[in-house]
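SAMPLE LOG
Freezer: B-3
Tube label: C17
Construct: single chain, 411 aa
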Amino acid sequence: MDITYLIARRIKKSSFSKSNVSSRIIKIAILAVGIGITSIIIAFSTGRGLQRSIYQKTAVFNGDVVISTFENNSSRLSLNPIKINENFSSILKDIKNIKTYQNTIYKAGLIKFNDNFEGIIFKGIDSTFNKLIFSKFIIEGRFPKLNKKNSNEIIVSQILANKLNLKIGDEPITFFKKDNTQAIPNQRKFKVVGIYNSDFTEFDDLYIIGSLNQIRIINKWFIDQVGSVEVFLNNSKKQNQTAANLYTKLPPEVDVITLKSRFENLFQWIALFDLNIFIILSIMLFVGFINVTTALLILIFERSSMIGLLKTFGALDIQIQKIFMFSSFDIIIKGAVLGNILGLGFYFSQKYLKWIKLDPTNYYVSSAPVEISLLEWMFINLSFIIICLILLWFPSKIISGISPSKNIRKS
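STRUCTURE (predicted):
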């Protein structure tokens, strides 16, 4: 076994067995490293969790990429139709990154029940709509049946239901403006069959969901015309490439816009979480480095006579440095173990118990989401340990300045 490792083990045992200054400093350094790792895991998992939860929730309601006319994409309402034919469908099916897509029509209107009015956007959908993804938001009732040609069933948000005092089975009246602004608006009576809550207030405040054919009839569109096509991707990180590919293949009157472009302000805000994570990582790394450096220097000065003796026996400076680097590594590892116990304890308790609550009006989620992959967890630990060890090599070079004769004489 390497003699430097054996000496490092002996130093570790003697430091922990004595209740001296170095023992207390080492324990403080271990605690500082532990707090650092814990803070990084918490910051990383909550930051990533919020980013991914907000993106996924936004994508559920809008798709990763939206195909529509230029007028529709600028207003987010279906002002002009696009034609869905075999060529259009084949283009979508030929692009490998496209997982699925759904036809939609958006129309603004009013909903009335008893004496209560609210402004709404009716999202018309058909059998292409992914009910499985949306079903997790349904808190009461069921999803509308779309197999009937002109189904009058709708699902409303909990926010709208509370404002209008709506319950399952109620039949509110909706009003939709005709193209001629002076004309009497179109009226439709719908039956509430479900209530949803997504915590995505921008959607919940306005949207009701029902049959696309109802809006098609009001708009006097043909059976092959829709307002937009919401596209879901296998790899959402490649949405820009997929959107560009679609734009070149689809007719010139059709526009293609990515989710991140449509909600630019929202995604600029959640991109700031990366900066927050980086700042916390840097601060915790600095705090951990300072504490371990302090412990290292105290160990070196406390054993200066031993260093002098080793030098007289012919030990090289780099060999003695290794002894104290082993001691530093031991401090970092013990701190990392403590930090991971605390950090992962927080992660799993929040993931399953959801004890930290958030205001969905500001964060689009009711509890703090946490997410960290095995690779990300390994990266955090390895980068922290490696960076600390690299930085600690420089203060350990103080050993080269210790004179053997002076320190042996002093002892």
